[in-house]
Specification:
The protein is mainly α. Helix 4 runs antiparallel to helix 7, helix 7 packs antiparallel against helix 9 and helix 8 packs antiparallel against helix 9. The chain is flat, with a radius of gyration of 21 Å. The protein starts with 5 loop residues before the first helix and ends with a helix.
């Protein structure tokens, strides 16, 4: 048994940094994938809508833990050499892409159809209508739930520990096993999660109130 020293705090800080980086990578990659999924879900081509719907159904209908396992053990079977960073980033990016795609699909469909019809009557192409008319409004309406999903994604990074990724919760577990002070170790971990997620949750709630008020 060891005393709880600055070394143990450094381990938790390292895990916190890994959580923040992984969350940023997954959210950035998931945003790009989600935009593609949302556009496919609302595209005129039926096959695109069906493919995007199947993607969303799979990632919303299976646990994130299973998705991480499939990426970590499945990619090497296909000949791709992956480490825990790549596996965690890919798994969380695909997961985020499915959920953000569905959130933004709802935003796109919430834009009054008359605006698209008027733009089409003016001769604007589908991509021009989406870029300049529909997407700016859809993303604004979807901003609050997007921030809310980011909170869930940050907390969901803790599942990456199952494939050997040392993030915040895993670092707390390691410190606890060394010092035999689980209350202190996991208390610090909980404080870190709260310090990150609580402001984002409050920000998301404030955005929802502002949108509801029409400001």
């Amino acid at each position: 048994m060891r005393e709880f020293t600055l070394n143990e705090l450094a381990v938790i800080a390292s895990g916190l940094w890994a959580t923040l980086i992984l969350s940023a990578i997954a959210f950035a990659g998931g945003s790009l994938a989600g935009l593609g999924v949302a556009l496919a879900r609302t595209a005129p081509m039926k096959w695109l809508r069906v493919a995007a719907g199947a993607f969303i159904d799979f990632f919303q209908g299976t646990p994130m833990l299973l998705q991480l396992f499939l990426v970590f053990y499945g990619l090497p079977v296909l000949g791709f050499k992956v480490n825990v960073w790549i596996a965690a980033a890919v798994g969380l990016t695909l997961h985020a892409g499915a959920f953000l795609g569905e959130i933004w699909r709802g935003g796109i469909q919430a834009v009054p159809r008359g605006q698209s019809e008027a733009a089409e009557a003016l001769g604007l192409s589908y991509w021009t209508r989406m870029r300049h008319i529909v997407l700016p409004q859809a993303l604004r309406m979807s901003f609050a739930p997007t921030v809310g999903f980011l909170v869930q994604l940050i907390k969901g990074t803790s599942l990456a520990a199952i494939i050997g990724f040392v993030e915040l919760s895993r670092s707390g577990q390691l410190v606890s096993s060394i010092t035999y002070k689980p209350l202190l170790a996991f208390g610090l971990v909980a404080a870190c999660y709260f310090a990150i997620c609580f402001p984002l949750s409050r920000y998301s709630a404030r955005l929802e109130r502002r949108l509801a008020a029409g400001t």
